[in-house]
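hey all, quick one before standup. I had two proteins in the batch that finished overnight and I want to keep them in one place so we stop losing track of which output belongs to which input. First protein below, input sequence then structure tokens straight from the run.
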Amino acid sequence: MGKLFAVIMAVVSLTISATLPGAVEAADDADAAHVVAYYFHSTARCPTCYKLEQYSKEAIGPGLKVVNVDEKENSHYIKDYRLYTKSLVLSLVKGGKEIKWKNLDKIWEYSGNRQKFIDYVKNEMSALLKEAQ
């Protein structure tokens, strides 16, 4: 019975991580799978770039990491995630290590539709977490 309870709690924890804003990195257990979300931008930004960041924050919550890749200490992300423009990248972390990442390339396509953008991001987060189960 104790093992069943532990399994149920683990599933609930993963589900909460995938659905609650601000719970992007909610993983008390170092081995638990969770998603880290990054919005990458440069110093020069247009109104759409700011909108991408705003919509990303709405979809993900306060756990979103906003990173300026023009800053020297962040330039490695360009190579790490093969960035070529402003991007939203989801990183699946399990056991303290990144096991998979995905650049959400449709954010530009959905930049004119807030709800489609948010739904897209949330669905991609859920799909990534399901892969870790």
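OK second protein, same deal, sequence then tokens:
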Amino acid sequence: MRRRDFIKVIAGSAASWPLAARAQQPALPVVAFINGGTPEAVGFARRLTGFRTGLSEAGYVEGQNVVVEYHWLEGHYDRLPALLDDLVRRGVAVIAIPGSNPAAVAAKAATTTIPIVFGVGEDPVRLGLVTSLARPGGNATGINFFVSEVIAKRLRLLHDLLPKATRITLLVNPSNAQTAQATIRDVETAAPAMGLQYQVLNATTIGEINAAFAGFERERPDALLVAPDGFFASRAVQFVTLTARDRIPANYAERDTVAVGGLMSYGTDLAEMFRQVGVYTGRILKGEKPAEIPVAQLAKFEFAINLQTAQELGIEVPSGLLSIADEVIE
């Protein structure tokens, strides 16, 4: 072989080395992120930042050493079976579900091998996600953020703001069955003790939310209590528009609804919940087993009230409520 040809062979081989090396590199782990709402919803940018921050705290940066697939249900929980079948078939590394009880329960039923990190507002033991909080014992662990357990507190705050109110409408999403049932149960217990009468209305779509408000022309409530739900949270602007139009005081579970004009809210700091779900996801990617990671209980709550909305509704907010509010929007 002539020297010139020898150099060409060596050069050609060297050029192929990077390609071969890349071909041999393992694929990045895939995290399937499932949420009941939409990415355009008020507050979701802040929550997604929390999730990514949690991942980075555990050593994972999206696009560098982990791939995150985002699946938004937009309130259509009937999409879950097909979605989960696909995720199980492909064998994703982790399924992360912050803030959707139905999705967490469906994922647990769909797989016993793929790790699941949930953020749920009810007791995960009662939901069947874990054996116990300290020893989950299966393929799921995560965060319990007590959304449903604070219904009585939300009713009390609404009653303190509107002491003359006697008729409350509770709006629930029956597609989110566990949360809807728990909310109704808690209202059944708490409302009579405060001298409140209540009716329950169902809504699972944008049109059904509109229809619920249209019905208020015939039977107007003194106030509205919106149940915690991922789909409802994604419809913050719709709720604010309708309550302003019909001049109905409303209490929500999410602070983000108050930030865009809702009257008041009491609930968990959801951005912090998303962050902790991200941390747990990263820990599992590093090799920890869900069965051995205790469920964390997030007990940080936020009470927010919008003074401008109160003024537009002709409501004078008692100084006692203002003194205990975590955030007063003026």
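Flagging for whoever picks this up: Residues 1-24 have pLDDT under 50 and may be disordered. The chain has 13 helices and 13 strands.
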